[in-house]
Write a structure and sequence with these properties.
Layout: E1 2-7, E2 16-21, E3 29-39, H1 41-47, E4 64-71, E5 83-86, E6 89-91, H2 97-100, E7 112-113, E8 133-137, E9 142-143, H3 159-169, E10 177-181, H4 185-196, E11 200-205, H5 211-217, E12 221-224, H6 228-233, E13 238-243, E14 258-266, H7 279-282, E15 287-290, H8 296-309, E16 315-319, H9 323-331, E17 338-342, H10 344-350
Parallel strand pairs: 10-11, 10-13, 11-12, 13-14, 14-15, 16-17
Antiparallel strand pairs: 1-2, 3-4, 3-8, 3-17, 4-5, 5-9, 6-7
Helix pairs in contact: 3-4
The structure holds zinc ion (2 copies).
One zinc ion (ZN) is lined by residues 40, 42, 62, 88, 158.
Length: 351
């Protein structure tokens, strides 16, 4: 199946129009016409080969919302015309112990990324959602609840589930004392979701400028992390801190803020952090942990939760040809809070 998208041809070149093929439908596949695609930091890192291992040309995009246009002969989960979504993973082994407990995101045999992954059958490199169409195994396609605004739902598929999953795993609920580090695409979803779960939410910020925004999103207060007195006063006052900062940084100012048995969970930075001091961990049974996106069942549960609580990301809609400028702005954290590409603009450009 011929399609078009936007690809990077190398780590140094900007994204540009690219014609390529999607696989013919297998028995259990669905074909999707993409309506909107969110823009994640991972897209930028992969396009520029920041993590190594990028195979070019690469079409990024793993926050995908679209409409089913065809289903394979054995596919029965989704019907033509349905609004559906695809997140960060498009396949896994489906039989290991982790897949058996709906944690495809921790599949023992390796899950297949939506882009720059390796198809389990043909070995071809997967291409993501900055495109007109995509073909995905039906088990990895989510249903979008009807009352969620299709134009805004895309960022839930990565930013949403990445924050929802640890909030659930650590049993955040009514009265939980939750801290959020970093108020970007992930952080702003963490605030909205934790508040909707009934938590008391504090946003940590380096500068006072974000206070009004944080409160608007549902936070109860902002704690300025450079204010040593305020940080000391907040010692042992958090059950759970979610750290969404996507670059190397210092965890040490936050560890004493956890209460006994409290956890700081990393969902942003994959790689080194500044040398941690273990004293607060030992003297309070505090924990530092990590979490990676979420399984398919939990992603579906997250969409239902957002539909019930009327939670949607804050998005800035862009045209496909604005993507390189969007990357520049994202690098400066100049986005409120997630870019979403209106894929109709790609069709218009192609025409
Ligand atoms: Zn992502
Ligand atoms: Zn598996």
């Amino acid at each position: 199946m011929k399609t078009i998208g936007y690809a990077a041809q190398s780590a140094e070149t900007p994204l540009a129009p690219f014609a390529f093929d999607r696989r013919e439908l297998r028995g259990n596949d669905v074909a999707i016409e993409i309506l909107y695609c969110g823009v994640c930091h991972s897209d930028l890192h992969t396009a520029r080969n920041d993590w190594g291992g990028t195979v070019y040309p690469i079409v990024p995009g793993h926050e995908i919302v679209g409409r089913v246009t065809a289903v394979g002969p054995e596919a029965g989960r989704h019907a033509v015309g349905e609004v559906v979504a695809v997140g960060c993973l498009v396949d896994s082994c489906k039989h290991c112990d982790q897949c058996e407990r709906d944690l495809e995101n921790y599949c023992r045999n390796g899950w297949v990324g939506t882009y720059n992954g390796k198809d389990k059958i043909t070995g071809e490199i997967t291409q993501g959602g900055y495109a007109r169409d995509i073909v995905v195994r039906e088990d990895f396609v989510l249903k979008v609840p009807q009352n969620l605004d299709v134009a805004k739902v895309a960022p839930l598929l990565c930013a949403g589930i990445t924050t929802y999953s640890p909030l659930r795993e650590w049993n955040v609920g009514e009265g939980s004392r939750v801290g959020v580090i970093g108020l970007g695409g992930l952080g702003h979803m963490a605030v909205k979701l934790a508040a909707a779960m009934g938590a008391d939410v504090t946003v940590f910020s380096r500068s006072p400028g974000k206070e009004a925004d944080a409160l608007e999103l549902g936070a109860n207060r902002v704690l300025i992390s450079s204010d040593a007195e305020a940080m000391t006063a907040a010692a042992s006052s958090f059950d759970f801190i979610i750290d969404t900062v996507p670059v190397k940084h210092d965890l040490n100012p936050y560890l004493p803020l956890l209460d006994v048995d409290g956890s700081l969970v990393l969902v942003g930075q994959i790689g080194p952090v500044d040398e941690p001091i273990t004293t607060p961990l030992v003297f309070g049974r505090r924990r530092v942990a990590g979490s990676l996106i979420g399984g398919i069942a939990e992603t579906q549960e997250m969409l239902a939760f957002c539909a019930e609580k009327n939670i949607l990301p804050e998005v800035e809609m862009i045209r496909m040809d604005e993507i390189n400028h969007a990357y520049e702005r994202m690098e400066k954290s100049d986005v409120h809070y997630r870019f979403v590409i209106d894929m109709a603009t790609l069709e218009a450009e192609a025409a």
